[in-house]
Amino acid sequence: MHSWHTTETAAPQTSQEIDPYRFPGAWYLGGRTVDTLTDSAGDYLLPAPDPRERIPYTLPVGDQRRLDVQTALTTAGVAPCPGDFAAIDALCALEDSAFSTVLRWITGG
Fold first, then answer.
1. pLDDT digits (tens, 9 = 90+) for 15-27
2. What is the domain partition of the chain in residue ranges?
3. Is the pTM of this model over 0.85?
4. Cys staple from 15: which of 37, 61, 75, 95, with CB 3.0 to 4.6 Å?
């Protein structure tokens, strides 16, 4: 039987050591904020946005449904064409149970 060992790695200390693709939300390192870590070009990572400063906004139901349908179609590998938007609008006008059934059919869930 194999035993698993974890390796401890030191936290990155400079902005060059931070991989933005692996750590997209990195904003704090070892007691210093990332915005104080600049590279030779003077670039720096922006700090994470403050959630308290968000504008409270809720999408209207029709817009949320339109996003849900387009996301489901794209995830299923069927990118909507420009001529499909009338059909998507018709789907968004369905009652809740019919709309959720159509989404379930698209996603295979």
1. 555 665 666 555 5
2. 1-52, 61-107
3. no
4. 37
